[in-house]
Amino acid sequence: MKVLIVNIRVAKERVGEFVAATRENAEASRKEPGVARFEILQDEADSCHFVLFEAYRDEKAQASHKETPHYRKWKDLAEPMMSEPRTRVLYSEL
Fold this sequence. Notes:
Layout: E1 2-9, H1 15-29, E2 35-42, E3 49-56, H2 59-65, H3 69-78, E4 87-92
Antiparallel strand pairs: 1-3, 1-4, 2-3
Helix pairs in contact: 1-3
C-alpha cells in the first residue's frame, strides 16, 4: 500500500469552490480499483488548510490516478485556487 499525504493551502475567498471541486474528485477517485481510500481533511484551526489522504493499493494505481479525467479536471480547477504550491509526501505501509 502506498499512502500519499498532500498539504494544500487555499485562498480564503476560494475555499467553497475548492471543497466542491475536491469532493467531486474524491468521489470519482474512490471508484478507481486501485484506490483504497481517498479522504479530504480540513484544518479546524485554519479553514484554508487542507490535507488529502490518498491510499493506493500499489505504485501502478497511484500513477494511474494521475491519468484519469477527474484528476486532470481537479488539477486544472484547484491549482489556481491555491495560495501556495501544494506539498506531497509518499509513505509505504509497513
